[in-house]
Task: structure prediction
Amino acid sequence: MTIFFSWFRQLVQSLRTLPIIGILCLLFTWSLPAQAANRIDPQLEQQVLQIIREHPEVIIESVQAYQQQQQQKLNQVRQAFLQDLKTNPQTIIANSPTTGATNSKILLVEFSDFQCPYCAEAHKTLKQLLAKYQGKIKLVYKHLPLAAIHPQALPAAAAAWAAHQQGKFWEYHDALFTNQKQLSEALYLDIAKNLNLDLVKFQRDQTLATPAIQKDIQLAEKLAVAGTPFFVISTPTISRVVQLSDIENILSNTN
Result:
């Protein structure tokens, strides 16, 4: 066991270049007895823990290296997205709802959740910006229902998608945010009635919405969107992730 301890100490010293997940997997594997994978040798476990205590910098450096690698991957994905948004925007827009200027060179992509209170506040600001900069900007809506914390977010997104199939997405969108505290199946049907939608088609389309919504969610996951609302803007001079508070300043300085 002493020979193992010495060898293992040297090995840990050489692990500085491995990602933290690799280190933890190796430590876990080595701490399992050959004959019983569900039991840990107490002596071996203590030796492993002692090495970690004596060399915490190995773990710290590995965490930092892993975070840097992940950030680099994310930056590459976001740069590819921004490039597509600038050079071939229709690939990003796809079948998503849009409003504002039809042929605008300024695109604002919003990832939003109908049950998110911050999205409701952003909705008010965006309506003001679209009115103020009419003819200058196109807004693209992407669904990002945070279902884990907002139980009505996904049903509301499905209802909005169904309204989109009848050309009434933005009217439905506005009504959902106006009545955010009353989100329910009854509300979704009432809004559809008020907008004179074909109710049979609307209810059928609600059941067909998941693939389109999931596509938006997958895009958000690729971009590592951590919350809503989330904005990406593309103008003739810049393409980047932005805060809502920055958007008007960018618009006012774009010819």
In short: The longest strand covers residues 107-112. The chain is about 60% helix and 10% strand. Residues 56-87 form the longest helix (32 residues).
